[in-house]
Structure formats: structure tokens, C-alpha cells
Design brief:
Layout (H helix, E strand, L loop, with lengths): L3 H6 L8 E5 L5 E5 L20 H21 L1
Antiparallel strand pairs: 1-2
Length: about 70
């Protein structure tokens, strides 16, 4: 059973899910999994610009060519 103080701090209610994560140093962290995905809306800044698939493909190809040239120049 999770102590009342911890449940209150994490705003846990009956039926909510929690996640336990064991850290490298052996400590354990407890995370509440009670957020609705809709609450996350607006947390990230909007994309600066939208690219078409063709523009994305061209940018990937350009970067691959640059990396290839750089690796051959060494």
C-alpha cells in the first residue's frame, strides 16, 4: 500500500496506475501514470514550419551526401 502522504502528493486515486523505476544507484522512483494524454496538449511549441515529403527527402539526401563527402575527405 502506498502511504497516504505519497498518494496525496501524486494526486493518486483508487484505480490509478503507478510506475516504479529502479535507478542505477539502487534507489527507486515512483511516477503517477494518471495523466490523460489530452492534458499534454500545448506543452510543446508549434513546429516552426511544415515541410512536404519531397522537401524532407531532399534534406535527408543532401545531408547524406555531405556526410559521405566528409568521410571520404579524411
Amino acid at each position: 500500500m502506498i502511504p497516504r502522504e505519497i498518494r496525496a502528493r501524486l494526486n493518486l486515486k483508487p484505480g490509478d496506475k503507478v510506475e516504479f523505476v529502479i535507478q542505477c544507484d539502487g534507489t527507486v522512483r515512483l511516477f503517477a501514470k494518471n495523466r490523460d494524454v489530452r492534458e499534454l496538449r500545448g506543452m510543446l511549441a508549434p513546429a516552426r514550419r511544415r515541410l512536404t515529403i519531397r522537401q524532407l527527402d531532399a534534406a535527408i539526401k543532401k545531408r547524406a551526401v555531405e556526410r559521405d563527402r566528409a568521410s571520404h575527405a579524411r
